[in-house]
Design a protein that fits this description.
By secondary structure, the protein is α+β, with helices and mostly antiparallel strands. The protein is about 30% helix and about 20% strand.
Amino acid sequence: MAAERCIFGRIGAGEIPCQRVFENEHVLAFLDINPLAEGHTLVIPKRCVERFEDLAPAEAVELALALVIVARKVLKVTGAAGYNILQNNGRIASQEVPHVHFHIIPRRADDGLGYRWKPQESDPAVLTALAQRIWDAAG
């Protein structure tokens, strides 16, 4: 699998140094070397997994717990007023490293980061049908 040789897999295995801010048996958090803001942190599972839906449920829980801990620490240290947690799956969604990773990006007023949302109106009947199809899909 490509994820086994990716840079985050190598960082998680200790082969490449990083600025660690949190670590346990399953998760590693470290500072992004090309940060969007002071305190921009990456949170990864140590096991090589390319996409979020491929995580074992217990791994997802470990990541969620680490995100809470690390977000609190980053906010405390940076004094940021808010933060984004971003996670991309697949190249089409801007995933550049084939290893599950979450970005914690501290935010301040007028920081110029932003992102574009293009909401679209939808027919309630279409939403009802879509919701039912998703509900019924095998997981």
